[in-house]
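Hi Y.,

Following your request, here is the sequence exactly as I used it, all 583 residues.
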Amino acid sequence: MARVIRKRTKKYSHNGCKECKRRKIKCDEEQPVCWQCDRLNKRCQYNTKTNNRHSMGNEVFKDLERHQDDMANARSNLLSPLLYFSENNSVLNQSLDEEVQDSLPVPGSSILANDLSDLISLNLDELATVAESTTPHYSTPDGIMLSSPPFDSERIFQTNVPMSYISLSGLNHFYMKEFYNDFSKIILPLQAKENGVTCNPVRDILMIHARDSYYLLYALLACGARTSHRKTSLPEDLSSYKAYLRHCLTSLTTAMDQQFNSKLDSILLTILVLTCDNASNKSQAWRAHLHGAKDLLFKKSYTNQKPQSMTFLLCRAWYSSIEILAGLVSANGGTLQSNEELDLLTLPNDQKEAATLRELKIVSPEGVSLFHGYSMELVVALKDLIKLLRNENKSRVHYSKIIDLLARLNKQLSFQVISGAGIIPETHQYHPKNVRQDNLNHANIEIISIDGNKIAVSWLDIVHRSYTLASLITISTKLLNMKKECEMVQGMVRDLLDTAFFLDATNDSSKSYCSFLLQWPILVAGLNSIEEPDKIKVETFFRLLAELGSGSAGFVLVRMRKVWLKGLKFEQETPDQVDIVPY
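Below is the corresponding structure, written out as tokens. Let me know if you'd prefer a different format.
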């Protein structure tokens, strides 16, 4: 019998470019541009060899050498605006010497830019079959100079920044209006109030930065185009979305070749906006592109060399809301994998930072985080719940930790902003018909109509109570191993669904963007529902979210129907094929 000689296979090479690795295709490792990237007209980048994947020492050293000559001109070349509240604010008023320090390269900054570039490229790949328009309105928007204005140390933070703050025309103006009026409410459904006027502090900061940062401006316009497409299904809206993303990528590439570190706040804002865009649509491809943001936020928070900028603190609060939601919903969690990271990035580091968030109106006077939708005390409790859920399959959770957490959550059930039940009595001073000039600063109150009766609802109370009950259900079923048929569990499910009484509204008053904040609590209620009326209410809720523009609502509904049909055993045996984070 003839001897079979096996051909020796070559050792697998890990030195291919990032784009080929992402596409899972063979790279010929030709530098500076490989054959595949040249053929596909993609940006070709190679990893720098280091002992540690996240070690940035060599990169920092090279960047320091490259930027030594720039330091002499740093005072006159700062491009990114620092925003201020007043001259007396010690957190926000930074000296010009500190801004010169900011022009030094920041470890992890190039990873952040690469993550943003990959996120945009991924979206463009999904739109490969969509025709891209070449009409003139995709050129540079009217009224904006290509170069950013010089650093202005007297710039004042504004509330209720109007659309006219950025001069646009034609379809640019139309898509900005879609972002301004609709998508910004998906990012921050709960609103703030100042002097009786409703405002969206996140939208304000995005508008201020977008006027000086092309990549952020194009990202906002892209979100506006996608929002319009959800409403109309017109192919030109999808073409516009693709064109804006391409312009965003081009502008980002240009920014990376200039004084990059002065633009980190704008790049953080851009990647968070596009993360929300992806998390609210069907692709759900967001986690891999937040690692750079996490590394940068962690390192700047950990070193804590000086008070951080207002925008940085806002980005960290925004990022925290995404990560806590991911930790509660997905078995994989978010990008925060250690308890140290959770502790550092989910809460303000000190009282000054907390005061800044209040001045930004990201945290309400009652202590409710508008990004999260519930009190800061509940943010701490949910962070600790995520820690316990992570340990569920690794080691035995000590009963004292569960008892302590149950006690804290029980206390949160008594927390209220206006009315714990979410329904504002007509005799209450904050009922709209009783509002006087001296109590106009309560936002997030709406009137809905149920069976011809007009009811005033407090969204802050509804969302907070829903998260508290969902947390108690999660502890009962996942940590204490109670069956969902248990009367105690079903009692909490019914209480939770009772907070969603707005679903019984007889008109469009139930279609509030604040519903987006209830996705995780209603998901928990749905997975543990056994009664048909409860299941119908849950299905009605997610259908409503789909109408409002939630791309994840359809996935969640399919997942729940399978659980209802096959039981929670299906949930345990069949991991999600789609990494769903309801946003």
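The first strand starts at residue 192 and ends at 194.

Thanks again,
Q.
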